[in-house]
Every structure is written in structure tokens, then in C-alpha cells.
Write a structure and sequence with these properties.
The structure is a homodimer. The first copy, chain A, has about 325 residues and is an alpha/beta fold. The first copy, chain A, has helices at about 20, 55-65, 85-105, 125-135, 155-165, 190-210, 210-215, 230-245, 270-275, and strands at about 5-10, 30-35, 35-40, 45-50, 70-75, 110-115, 140-145, 170-175, 220-225, 265. In chain A, a hairpin with a 2-residue loop joins strand 3 (about 35-40) and strand 4 (about 45-50). In chain A, helix 3 packs parallel to helix 4 and helix 4 (about 125-135) runs parallel beside helix 5 (about 155-165). At the A-B interface, helix 6, helix 8 and helix 9 of A face helix 6, helix 8 and helix 9 of B.
């Protein structure tokens, strides 16, 4: 069975000056610092240090060989989503990065594929760009788990997911724009507390909001980071559903009946956690490098419980 | 081994009109609706329906017999905390409920004990009330996982926890005042998404903020609901700690080294989840009744991994 990494991010080596292009501040740009290294900046603010595996297919393929990965499915990082921007800017930005992804994949000796991004604040524009990208060779789309205060049960987003199902586009849901930043100002807690909560919110909203009831079962949707905190909290959710009328939401069945409707990746960094979501991992942990984290799932025709059939490599 | 329920809430049958007493609106009050039933109101707003087990020790003891519980340690519900109120009001309110808890326990045939509450927005007042309550017969204190934007690594809260350790007062941390309510307006998601995130935030802040390094190991502190989402997210936290300098926080050791510093209860409503936190449960699930939920832990001198030695009963 081939090992396919479905959760890793890329950055092009260069892209246009988006602040100048659109006349608005704080767009991401890449500041090359030394050979093979760069910083992602948001306007004047440092966001993250990255290195050449983000943009150089040779470096990436070498790392895949080292880690025993047969194929990678690339996606942008959520910092590029621009859902809060005017749709014409977000669409133009999406097209830039979507085309850049295909260029990078074209140099990947058949081992690199990609997910596109869309301006999810506008459903018509998102459906149109998704269709364009599928024709151009993307395998699907990566979306954020929310658009402002709209969760994944928002009627427009459900419409977009329906379009994805019909287009055969796989959907990877990545947490972003983490909630309550003033409550977790330090220690990267938006990543260790906020992100899993965002993913939990995405899954719970889809279930209780009736999105899975409306969507066809052929939709392939996967939640990042092992589904956030969902696996451990399913009991709490199920209990609330049975005992509190207001927690019942709109869904036709108890929450546990929807586990066969979505996938999760194996990026939980803990074999015990992976076991908790029904994954059997070889010994070893995933690495934790900044923007090119090795986290992957071996694709399979089977859909075991709520998880992908997964493999992981050791780098320690 | 006796079965001791350490997480259940009480309401007195009556208490003074706090809005009139303090001249400020939206205090909780109890509206008796029919024999043995009542609604908790927050000003004009309905909060929760409860029944006589909340205030009648006879009813409570009968339920304990039915459920195989030897002893209960009662606590107020977080809706009574009043941390956002002037301290003199919150202290007066705490004293009212603390004394009411002891009255209820006095009629419990030795099988009811209690945790007090304190005005945690004021550390001196909290230490003083904790000492008064310990002398009066409380076993410890229940606190919220935050006070406004102060997490459990706040120096004042750490001082209070130090006082609890020295006083031999057990501490139960309950999530409350859930984050980002505008992001989860429906379906009780503040309870199924927000509460576990709050508890995760409490534990992570204590670890990364260095609170456990400062506090003596004799502190007995327990987090509600199986520790929120912490158990499943430990791998993510540990990975971030090792790979991102900013995620390192102030703590001396990796996060996994602090698992022997706190307890979690068994209120996870799922045997698989319980197994994930090192608990071995008999068959059966906890019940999910509103304000008198059966969730309990058999006390033990041992501290197995991150959990209490727990027992659970079946009511289905």
C-alpha cells in the first residue's frame, strides 16, 4: 500500500506583492533570509520561518525518500486563505497559489499532487474556481473550518461541499483564524488549544447542523490533526444529544452515527491518540517542522472507523 | 474501595434575592415550578431545569443507593461563581452558598461532603474564605478555569493554589464562561466544544506557564470532564514544545512530565475515552441529567497516570 501524505503545506519561492496589487495591507509575503531559508511575513509581522522544501521539489522529494513517503498532496497554509478580504482579491490570490501549486507538482516526478484553495466567502466564486482547478489537475480543495462566524453547516458552505462531492473533489478541512485569541496570548496556545477546538467546532457543527444529512455520502471530507479533539469528546457530545433537547440540533441521528461520513488525518503526534481514532501506526512519531510537517495517511479504498488507513514514519 | 462521586452540583431550595441584596441585575434565582421541580433563572433568562435531588438530601441519598455511590462531594454550579462581580458581592454570595452546602451535608447521614467556592477575582478574599470553609468542614474548593482573561498560571491564582496546598484543600477545576460564544450560538456547543477547550486551556496554561513548577506536589488538583480534550491533545502539545521555541513556555520539563501533578474525573461518557486517560471502568455509562449528573471517581491513595482510580455505574 503506498504511503500518501495528505497534510503538508507549500509556499511558492516568490509571488507578486499582494499589498501593492490590491492596495490593502498585511498580505503574506516571503522574505528570503539565507540560502534555502525564508520567513513568511504578514505585512511587517513575522509569521513563520520555512525552508526550501516548501518551494523546491528536489528537496521535497529527497525528504519523502528519507521518510518513506510515496506521494504528497500539497496544500497552501491557511494564512493564505484571505476569507476576510474582498472576494475579487481572495479569488485572484487563490488562483495565483493554485497555479503555483500545479507548477510545483509538475516538477514532482509524478509524486506530488495538490489541493486548491477557494474564496470561501463567496460560494459562486468558490464553485467556479474549484471546477477550474479540478480541470487543471488538482485533486480537491483545502478549506478553513469557518468563514467568520459561519460554521461548516452554513447553507452556502454546504452548497459548496455539495459541489465538491459532485466534482469528485476531496476536501481537507484545516483549522484557522483561531477563536478567542485574547484568552490565549502566549505559548502558541492558539495552535495547541485553539486549533483542535476549531476542528471540533467544525465537525460538531456539520453533524448537529444537519450538513451530513443533506450531503451525499460520496463526499470525501477529511479533518486535519486527527479531527482535533473530536475523538475524545464524542462521548460527551453523544450524551448531550440524548439528554438535552437543545443539544439535539437538526441531525436525524445521534452524532456517533456520522463517523463513517468523514476522515481524519494521522497528525496527532502520539501513537496512543492515533489508536484512539482507530489508526494502527508503525512505531515512531511524526516530525514537527514548521511548515512542512510530515503527517500522512496511506490511501485505501476502505474507510476504517473514523480514520484513514494510516502509516507514519520515524525520524528520531 | 468506596465509590466517591466528586463531580456533582447542588442548589439550595431557596436563597436570598441577590439582585435586591446587591442592587445589580441578572443574579441567579430559583423558580419552583411544581412539586420537586424548579428552574434556575438568571434574571429574566431561563438557565436550567433542576429537580429535588439538587436540594433534598433524602432524594439524593436514594439516588446514590440506586447508583451504587457511597459518598458524594458536592459543589455549586459555575453559574454561581460571580467572578465578574464586585468582590464584596461575590464573597457574600460565596459565603451564602458555602454555608448552604454544609447545611445540606449535615443532613446527609455522613455520606455528603462539599467543596466551597471563593471570589477568585480577589486572592486575599479567596484565601480567607477558603480557610474559613476548611475550618467549617468543607473538603476543598471548586474554581473556574479562568477569571476573565486570567488563566490558571496567573500569579494571583497560583498564590491561591499554593494556599490550597498548604491548607490541604482539594481543588476541582470546572470550565465556565466559555470562550467565543458568538462562534457557537447553537446546539449547546459551548458545552460540547467550549467547555472541553476551556479545560484544555486551563491545563495547558498551568503547564506551560510554569505553575506546576512553582506549586508543591502535595497540591491535589482535579480537572472536570476527564480533563476536557487534554488527553487526546497531549501529543500535539508535546510535539509543539519540542519543535517550536515559542511553544516552550516557562515550564522546566516537557508537558508529559506533569501528568502526575493533576487528576481528572471520569465524566467522559465513553468507556473508550476513559481508557484513553488510563481509567478502567466497569460496563455502563454515566447518566446525563441536568444539574445532578452522576459522574464520580473512587478515591484511592494511588494516582494512576493522569486519572483517578475510577468507577462508574450503569443506569441504562
Amino acid at each position: 500500500m503506498p504511503v500518501i501524505d495528505i497534510h503538508n503545506h507549500f509556499f511558492p519561492r516568490t509571488w507578486p506583492d499582494l499589498a501593492a496589487r490590491y492596495g490593502t495591507p498585511d498580505w503574506p509575503w516571503i522574505k528570503h533570509t539565507e540560502a534555502g531559508k525564508a520567513d513568511i511575513m504578514l505585512g511587517d509581522r513575522f509569521f513563520r520561518s520555512i525552508y526550501s522544501a516548501c518551494w523546491d521539489p528536489e528537496v521535497r522529494l529527497n525528504e519523502m525518500d528519507r521518510d518513506g513517503v510515496d506521494m504528497q498532496v500539497l496544500s497552501a497554509t491557511p494564512v493564505l486563505f484571505a476569507y476576510e478580504r474582498p472576494v475579487e482579491h481572495a479569488l485572484d490570490c487563490a488562483m495565483l497559489f493554485n497555479d503555483a501549486a500545479l507548477e510545483l507538482c509538475a516538477r514532482g516526478k509524478g509524486r506530488l499532487k495538490s489541493l486548491c484553495q477557494v474564496p470561501l466567502q463567496d460560494i459562486d466564486a468558490s464553485c467556479k474556481e474549484l471546477s477550474r482547478c479540478m480541470r487543471a489537475g488538482h485533486l480537491g480543495v483545502q478549506i478553513g473550518n469557518h468563514v467568520g462566524e459561519k460554521n461548516l453547516d452554513d447553507p452556502g458552505i454546504v452548497t459548496f461541499l455539495h459541489h465538491c462531492a459532485n466534482a469528485g473533489a476531496a476536501v481537507l478541512v484545516h483549522p484557522w483564524d483561531m477563536l478567542a485569541p485574547q484568552r490565549m496570548p502566549k505559548y502558541m496556545m492558539p495552535w495547541t488549544v485553539g486549533m483542535p477546538a476549531e476542528t471540533q467546532l467544525g465537525i460538531v457543527a456539520m453533524i448537529l447542523g444537519g450538513a451530513f444529512d443533506k450531503l451525499p455520502s460520496k463526499l470525501r471530507i477529511c479533518f486535519a490533526h486527527g479531527g482535533g479533539s473530536f475523538a475524545f469528546l464524542l462521548g460527551r457530545l453523544e450524551n448531550a444529544w440524548h439528554h438535552h433537547p437543545v443539544a439535539h440540533g437538526l441531525c436525524a441521528l445521534p452524532p456517533s452515527h456520522y463517523l463513517n461520513r468523514f476522515y481524519v488525518d494521522s497528525a496527532v503526534f502520539d501513537e496512543r491518540g492515533a489508536a484512539g481514532i482507530g489508526l494502527s501506526l508503525p512505531a515512531g512519531r511524526t516530525s514537527g517542522r514548521d511548515s512542512h510537517t510530515i503527517k500522512f495517511a496511506g490511501l485505501s479504498d476502505e474507510r476504517p472507523s473514523a480514520g484513514w488507513e494510516c502509516g507514519n514514519v520515524s525520524r528520531s
